[in-house]
């Protein structure tokens, strides 16, 4: 079943593979679309897929879907009732990461899948969202052979350029998806490892622009203090 998600020969083949997306009679009129974003046809295929980037919409489902659909800004959207929508074909480029860097690599749109989750960066997921997102992640990780610590948050990869407040490029431009760095939530989503430090801050490519965000993204192991120095990881 999981192998079906790798090669999509028909528009809704992935629905069969995942087995949980259904239309809901109570959905707002016009909410569900059986068409890909109008931007899908013009988007190139990715040459590789190295990461999954998790986002939070910071707004309601309908408004988020309309924006994401019109602009092709995500591959998937996970609603609070657990319904999942594909917006850009998963093998194509979706413009979801913006100004981004991870491990010295920029423009992560070209090498990642973007998943938008309806909610806020400091909010909570519903049980239905957790179950749906876990199943989606399980399928994508297997299809692209990705380890758990390659499932990142948008806040981990987004960065800001020099401006009147920051004289150097810096991490902390967005808190989007910050809750997905919480170890307890990651375990609920089937993610048993996560980045323990920011590789671009550690290498001096970026500075910390939001100390609170840095503490939330890289929580120290239980019983230890927060560290800014890197530890070895795969």
Describe what this molecule looks like in 3D.
By secondary structure, the protein is α/β, with parallel strands linked by helices. The protein has one domain (45-217): Peptidoglycan recognition protein-like (Lysozyme-like, 3-Layer(aba) Sandwich), CATH 3.40.80.10. The protein is 24% helix and 13% strand. The chain is built from seven helices and ten strands. The strands form three sheets. It has a five-stranded mixed beta sheet. The longest helix is centred in the middle third of the chain and has 18 residues, at 127-144. Residues 1-34 and 223-234 have low confidence and may be disordered.
Question: TL;DR?
Answer:
This protein is α/β, with parallel strands linked by helices.
Structural class computed from helices and strand pairing = alpha/beta
Kindly state the percentage of residues in helix: 10-25%
Shape: globular
The average pLDDT score comes to 83
Report the top-level CATH class.
Answer: Alpha Beta
**What is the CATH architecture annotation?**
3-Layer(aba) Sandwich
The number of strands is 10
